[in-house]
């Protein structure tokens, strides 16, 4: 198979640096929230804020890319995020919980843009290289898994208020990210095809393959976000495990989210998208069993490893499957709808995670996720021929 083009590697390296915003917020958002929030039940609101911001920004970002092109949109949003990261640092410095949440919601615009990297990579390659391009870009998340928590810890004591320096370091990462993404080049496409209006969304969403792609990615993200967002609060605040142990569990989880990307293209070629996504659902099921059975560091670590693997198989499976539902001239509106549904659901999961774990405890939070696994399972079985 021919090598991947420069665009794919530029996007992967950019994601490695800038997706650290998500891992940083997952790690410290609940901890900062526990100190600043007027109520402990609002502790995970900062984490939820970035996800809500991502969900709200998905459609505007897609429209910007259609109007101005991917490269210009990427660069403008990255530059904007440098300023917003500094605003987040300032909000911690003045101890403003709601300004902190607002700044993280604005960083969601950047995350919405970063989530388009996989589509930009897929458009840069031939059809046979689509699974490899998508998984290669997501490999950048492995580095982000370490970079985000490390700059969180490294910047914690830089200034008087804990974690203020962490967001200043994040701003510097986005400066480097801007330089890297400046090497990305827009992909030339058939102007006649892209200028044509294409089918209306009402027709596109009637396809079973569309719903299978969306529901698998959507439920994979919801289950992952629900458990992941609650983990630092349950583990560090409620169970008293150390910050280092909590960092290790979150880092391991994010590595597990992206490390399987080394193999997913090969897995798809050998067993098909359907069987890979079914394996992801199985990983989720085992994750829930481990998480339910105890509160030791090993229980958190093992369950979040499997949580990451399950997410990867469902998300990459859904991403790879989605182009079967649209033509090239329909891609922006379908991708925008896909992203809005995925991250809107993830936002609901993240918003409720802190409330649920505080109100009913870790075990009941785990039980709540069980019925969610039936949704992607049913979608896969219903369209088993289309997902082969």
Name the shape in a single word. Answer: globular
Q: Quick one: CATH superfamily?
A: MFS general substrate transporter like domains
Question: What percentage of amino acids are in beta strands?
Answer: under 5%
Q: Which regions contain 5 or more consecutive residues with pLDDT less than 50? A: none
Helix amount: over 70%
Distance between the first and last residues' Cα:
22 Å
How many helices in DSSP terms? Answer: 18
The structural domain count equals 1
Q: Give the number of DSSP strands.
A: 0
* CATH topology value: Growth Hormone, Chain: A
Largest sheet: number of strands, sense, barrel closure: none
CATH class, named Mainly Alpha
Which structural class matches the secondary elements? mainly alpha
Radius of gyration: 20 Å
Descriptive report:
The chain is mainly α and 388 residues long. It has a single domain, classed as Growth Hormone, Chain: A (Up-down Bundle). Helix content is 78%, strand content 0%. It is built from 18 helices and no strands. The longest helix is centred in the C-terminal third of the chain and has 32 residues. The protein is globular, with a radius of gyration of 20 Å. The mean pLDDT is 88.
From the structure above, extract its key features.
388 residues; mainly alpha; Growth Hormone, Chain: A
Topology:
Blueprint: H1 6-18, H2 20-36, H3 45-68, H4 70-93, H5 97-114, H6 117-122, H7 130-138, H8 140-154, H9 164-181, H10 191-195, H11 201-204, H12 208-238, H13 243-258, H14 261-292, H15 297-321, H16 331-360, H17 362-369, H18 374-382
